[in-house]
């Protein structure tokens, strides 16, 4: 089936007319709104917090109508300084002090309406300096130093200062010192009170001040010392030194000098003076007064005595050669004036070793010296009139102590297990060409209580243990050395080990032992040992005589016979026989039936 589509307008003529009138009504309404009030007003302008170089402007504005905005143009003295400013307050800076300003503010809206409001104000005058501190320092009886801190100024002004003391101006127009402000006041009076005023003045003639007070010290002096020195018969030096409180200028101190009440010098700045033309052997009183111009002073006195006539020259010498530890000295006696006495001091190496030696003494023995040492010696004669005279100085050297001569050599013989003979070489000691007696002290280190002394050259060491080592010490000493407190000595040590202890044979004895003279008809220079019975069945292991082992010997039926001794060994025995060395002892060790025996013996010399 086929359809026919027909277009029908959606709005009728009546509807179109209705919409037209509505639009016209709207245009009419807009025209009426544009005629609404859009005015602006500024009620007042105030200058607040007026300073010498700034202020704050504040104003109060109002506007009419909706959607209206405002900005402000600010003029100062007819000059636009801010345009299109949106706030209701504005800071003015860099103004001139004590100056009248005028201006205006124009308010403008976004609908081209505006309003204008004028204002005026006068800036404040230049400011005064702010407060500051003042101190009195370094106070003495004569002066004080006034110090102050630079006060602050709001306008960064340049400052000068004036100082008043007790109402009287002392100094004006003191320039500011960046390193510190100070002024020294002098010529004060002790104890007096002082009122100090410091006035700070700006370059705009604005002022502030600070006032303080203090009292000058009673005195600036603490102590004055006065000494005398280099006193002679007619002159003396006096020196002085004064101590003061801190900060006093020592250059302003002067001194007056008196001698026995008479003024010699006034207002000197020296600290030493030579007193001349004095009388010998007389007492004087010197006085020094330290003073300041303000009357502050301190005195000091000292008493001294000039010298009299000193003792005459005298000479010291040695009586003889200086010994190792002592020497004798002597000296001539000095002369002195009438009614004057004196004593000596004795110096050794510039140190006093004896005081107050009486004037009639003319010698001294010096003891406790050191050998081979150089010494200087002098005396001083000290008189009771204040004078003294030194003798000449002598130099001497002590000699070296003589020593023990010879090598001390220690050996051992006749080692029997429980005893041994120690023998040693002799040593000697000579003083002034005189041979002194030498003593030999024998000690055994392992036996603390063993101590023996002899002038001989050998000693039996008994009560020993077999197969034991002992350290034997021989100390040679000379008790009469010829010197006080000097005992020369020489020491040697040697270790000996005792032999094994063998028993005596129950029946076999040694009946005789003989050293035949080297010119004897029979057995010349040989040692023969006889036994109490035949020894053909025994084995002789050791044949010892004096200090020698007989390594070569002959065995007979009841005796043994050594080979001929050398001349030196023979002479050693003969020369010491019965003397200082034990040389006539020996022993024989033999084996009988598997057992070892030892028989000691003594031999004698036969000259046939």
Automatic annotation (TrEMBL):
It comes from the Bacteria. This is Fibronectin type-III domain-containing protein. The keyword Signal applies. The keyword Plastid does not apply. Keywords: Repeat, Signal. Residues 1-31 form the signal peptide. InterPro entries: ECM_Regulatory_Proteins, FN3_dom, FN3_sf, Ig-like_fold. PROSITE patterns: FN3 (PS50853), PROKAR_LIPOPROTEIN (PS51257). Transmembrane segments: none annotated. Residues 126-223, 310-403, 404-501 form the Fibronectin type-III domain. It holds the Pfam family fn3. It comes from Tenacibaculum finnmarkense genomovar finnmarkense.
């Amino acid at each position: 089936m086929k359809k026919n589509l027909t277009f029908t307008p959606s709005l009728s003529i009546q509807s179109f007319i209705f919409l037209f009138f509505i639009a016209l009504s709207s245009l009419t309404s807009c025209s009426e709104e544009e005629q609404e009030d859009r005015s602006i007003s500024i009620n007042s302008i105030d200058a607040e917090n007026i300073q010498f170089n700034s202020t704050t402007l504040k104003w109060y504005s109002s506007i009419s109508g909706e959607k209206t905005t405002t900005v402000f143009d600010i003029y100062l003295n007819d000059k636009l300084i801010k345009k299109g400013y949106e706030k209701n307050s504005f800071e003015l800076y860099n103004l001139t002090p004590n100056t009248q300003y005028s201006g205006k503010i124009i308010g403008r809206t976004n609908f081209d309406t505006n309003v204008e409001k004028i204002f005026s104000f006068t800036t404040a005058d230049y400011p005064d300096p702010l407060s500051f501190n003042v101190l009195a320092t370094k106070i003495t009886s004569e002066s004080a130093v006034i110090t102050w801190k630079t006060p602050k100024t709001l306008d960064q002004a340049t400052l000068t200062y004036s100082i008043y003391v007790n109402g009287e101006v002392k100094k004006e127009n003191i320039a500011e010192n960046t390193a510190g402000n100070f002024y020294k006041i002098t010529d004060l009076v002790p104890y007096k009170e002082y009122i100090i005023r410091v006035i700070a003045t700006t370059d705009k003639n604005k002022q502030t001040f600070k006032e303080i007070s203090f009292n000058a010290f009673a005195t600036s002096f603490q102590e004055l010392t006065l000494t005398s020195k280099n006193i002679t018969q007619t002159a003396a030096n006096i020196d002085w030194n004064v101590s003061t409180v801190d900060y006093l200028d020592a250059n302003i101190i002067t001194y007056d000098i008196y001698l026995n009440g008479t003024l010699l010098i006034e207002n000197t700045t020296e600290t030493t003076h030579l007193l001349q033309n004095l009388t010998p052997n007389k007492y004087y009183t010197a006085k020094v007064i330290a003073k300041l111009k303000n009357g502050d002073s301190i005195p000091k006195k000292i008493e001294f005595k000039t010298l009299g006539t000193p003792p005459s020259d005298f000479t010291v010498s040695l009586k003889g050669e200086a010994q190792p530890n002592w020497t004798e000295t002597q000296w001539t006696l000095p002369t002195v004036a009438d009614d004057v006495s004196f004593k000596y001091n004795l110096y050794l190496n510039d140190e006093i070793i004896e005081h107050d030696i009486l004037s009639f003494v003319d010698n001294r023995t010096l003891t406790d010296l050191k050998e081979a040492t150089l010494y200087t010696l002098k005396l001083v004669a000290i008189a009771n009139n204040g004078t003294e005279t030194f003798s000449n100085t002598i130099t001497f050297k002590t000699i070296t102590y003589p020593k023990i001569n010879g090598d001390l050599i220690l050996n051992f013989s006749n080692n029997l297990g429980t005893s041994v003979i120690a023998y040693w070489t002799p040593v000697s000691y000579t003083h002034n060409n005189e041979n002194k007696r030498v003593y030999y002290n024998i000690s055994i280190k392992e036996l603390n209580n063993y101590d023996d002394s002899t002038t001989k050259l050998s000693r039996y060491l008994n009560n020993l243990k077999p197969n034991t080592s002992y350290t034997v010490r021989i100390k040679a000493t000379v008790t009469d050395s010829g010197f006080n407190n000097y005992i020369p000595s020489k020491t040697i040590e040697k270790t000996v080990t005792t032999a094994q202890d063998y028993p005596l044979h129950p029946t076999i004895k040694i009946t005789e032992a003989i050293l035949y003279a080297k010119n004897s008809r029979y057995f010349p220079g040989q040692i023969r040992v006889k036994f109490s019975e035949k020894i053909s069945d025994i084995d002789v292991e050791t044949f010892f005589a004096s200090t020698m082992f007989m390594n070569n010997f002959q065995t007979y039926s009841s005796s043994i016979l050594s080979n001929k001794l050398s001349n030196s060994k023979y002479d050693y025995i003969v020369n010491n026989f019965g003397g200082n060395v034990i040389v006539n002892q020996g022993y024989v060790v033999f084996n009988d039936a598997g057992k070892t025996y030892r028989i000691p013996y003594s031999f004698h010399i036969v000259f046939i």
